[in-house]
């Protein structure tokens, strides 16, 4: 019973945070490999399945609001598809203990990134270098971020969104594109990790996780305007940093 309560609560809460802020999905692998004591492969399969759901729901909402550049998102995601396949293959040949350390390091750096990053309030505009105007750079960025996310279990937006902003994409469009992109990272990653698992035993867990993750995402996205985004993101960042330090300490000491 405790196992199922953690699965439901984690996906509901993390889904709500994703709906509210666009980030926090990277916390799911830690829940699966930490409190639930699942293997890294099983945890990543479940996490990437959830990222597909949250990415699809989130990108639909951003598209309706006019904040999703679909042609650019498709070009970026073509690179991510290939990169994600490579990331899964690398994960399967690297020792599980090393993958766990990499996962916790990504969570730590993600938390620090959220804590330090300041969202620009300027309107979306094209000034200076804009990566969406450069096909080769877009494909390379998609490939590299897709490989890192699939290898480590990072959801996608927490890594891709800040990079897009730095490379000339407006903040709202960057969130929409990164959510859209996470679907294309999640599909090959989920399939690749599922093929290494006992699918029959994992399917009931996945079904419950996806239902409650979707509920959380929908609830969060509908209530995002009521929440102080800055305070919430800082809270998620501090929590992520503390969890990552704790897990790294237990893994290394």
UniProtKB/TrEMBL annotation:
Record's subcellular location: Cell membrane; Membrane
GO cellular component: plasma membrane
Mode of membrane association: Multi-pass membrane protein
Entries under Pfam families matching the protein: TauE
Major subcellular location class: membrane
Keywords, ordered alphabetically: Cell membrane, Membrane, Transmembrane, Transmembrane helix
Membrane-crossing segments per the record: 12-32, 44-62, 74-92, 98-116, 128-148, 201-219, 231-249
Entry similarity comment: Belongs to the 4-toluene sulfonate uptake permease (TSUP) (TC 2.A.102) family.
Protein name: Probable membrane transporter protein
Organism: Enterocloster citroniae
